[in-house]
TrEMBL record:
Low complexity bias (residue ranges): 240-252
Keyword Protein biosynthesis: no
Protein name: Transcriptional regulator
InterPro entries from the UniProt entry: GntR_C, TF_FadR/GntR_C, Tscrpt_reg_HTH_GntR, WH-like_DNA-bd_sf, WH_DNA-bd_sf
HTH gntR-type domain: residues covered: 14-82
Alphabetized Gene3D superfamilies for the sequence: GntR ligand-binding domain-like (1.20.120.530), Winged helix-like DNA-binding domain superfamily/Winged helix DNA-binding domain (1.10.10.10)
Amino acid sequence: MTSRLVVIPTRRAHSNHAEVARSIGVDIIAGRYAEGVRLPGDAELTAMFGVSRPVLRESVKTLVAKGLLTTKARVGTVVRERGAWNMFDADVLAWHLDAGIDRRFLNDLAEIRLAVEPRAAALAAGRRSEADIAELNRSMARMRAEASDSVGFADGDLALHLAVANASGNLFMRSIGNVIEAALRASFLLSAPVETQDRETVLLWHQRIVDAIASGDAKAATVAMTEVIHNGLRRHKEAPASSGAAPAISTAVESGEQS
């Protein structure tokens, strides 16, 4: 089965070396430079991008630090295997959205969410403050007020999940939520519950997360969060496959690379 590929354009970088790094990074992630392939030489790349050698070398250093490239004496600059890429790097995630996210990416995202978010919900049930509960309720209100396939609905969904991470009181869980924020928003947009019954199911289980955290029921919060993630994954899998890129969804993701 062909993976559904959806391109989500991000904002461009703010410096020459950052833009060159972004361009090469997107090409690597999209498979235009395959794993184990040596990049063109400095002369070809500087001519291609219209930059100086110092700018190119700074770009390569950036990609090496993010795990996408390695440099070897007498070999050159080589693309590393996917498993070496730093998927918690904000730029690497943004470049995935630029390159086009497919079902493999969405499955991997769901798996890391299942490893973290149910536990975050359980912790939130024991540590939440009144301010946390108020933020959760605001997020639910926004979801109810917005059309299911709107950016506003996805943003309300995202705000709720980030509020759960914040209420957990665990700094690592908060950080993970912030790092994968762009990928979560993209995932929520792609799994929008457009059918009436799907919408009611989504709202029901999100409300159960809020209610369980508010009542201090860690077990119920865990179950509800797990169900929410599985529901979203099911909608991704039921979406029709496409042999090409679907229409772009602009989320205006800011590249983390600054000048």
